[in-house]
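[PROTEIN RECORD]
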Amino acid sequence: MKILIIRFSSIGDIVLTTPVIRVLKTQLDSAEIHYATKKQFSSIFQENPYIDKMHYLQDSLPDLVRELRQENFDYIIDLHNNLRTRIIKLLLGVQSSGFDKLNFQKWLMVNLKVNKLPSVHIVDRYLDAAKSLGIKNDSLGLDYFIPEKDEIPQDWLPESHRSGYVVYAIGGQHATKKLPLNRMIELCAKIKRPIILLGGKEDAATGDAIKLYFEKQGVSLAVQTMIYNACGTCNLNQSASIVKNATHVFTHDTGLMHIAAAFKREVISIWGNTIPDFGMYPYRTKFTVLENNHIGCRPCSKIGYAQCPKGHFDCMNKIVFDFELPNQ
């Protein structure tokens, strides 16, 4: 049976589809699994042993449709459920299923603060989209496979971080998903461990500011907090390698949170304008949620904004860092 899975973006959402890929390949006899996504996310699947062939959306949807039509799929599992994926299913004309994005329930929660969201993780909703094929959740969690060339050797790290470190993923797709700089510094001061900051090139300046703050403090404050800023220096798989070897991972609502869950790292997840109730909290790993539930405007979006719509940003400015790390 030749099956096509579709999920175009983004990093976290794609990682969350990996249990579907695995159970289809391992539970169905002679299943041939194809996956369609955007080209920029190809590295996520570079070493995935459960995928037989990848297809990429680049500049032209018609080009992708022509490529997919040649495969003569038996079934399509649509884990994106947007206009483009509906067009693909219509043009290919084969049996398909999709998942409920819960857009109405999310609208109620964002706009009226009426919670009709089911207590079901999005991974389980993804798996429900394929249940007609007879698959079951194998309870093994998420997958992430790192190419050998992207494994970070221990001697790449500063000596201060080689005997153990915490990761803080400071990035986020939207500003309202990220702590402001002063609160990032406050969080790092409380962690009091060697910390590796991870993020994209756009986060490098913030990482430098955090590092500089602690260098200026010297021994007067949080002497055990030692910052190594790796933002913008690693590709996604290299960042995943650093996450895999961390003792704990602090992260905003972002893709590295789900990569950390794939490696069963203990996650401390930090939530601003979005909420875990949307169903995208860390999956099948130990985690702590840090969020401010004492304001009436949250959630203000199911995605995020460039700045707080109310101007106060209390979801992040007044969040309490209520966590304890075990003694080293």
Summary: The domain at 2-133 is CATH 3.40.50.2000 (Rossmann fold). The chain has a mean pLDDT of 96. The first helix runs from residue 11 to 15.
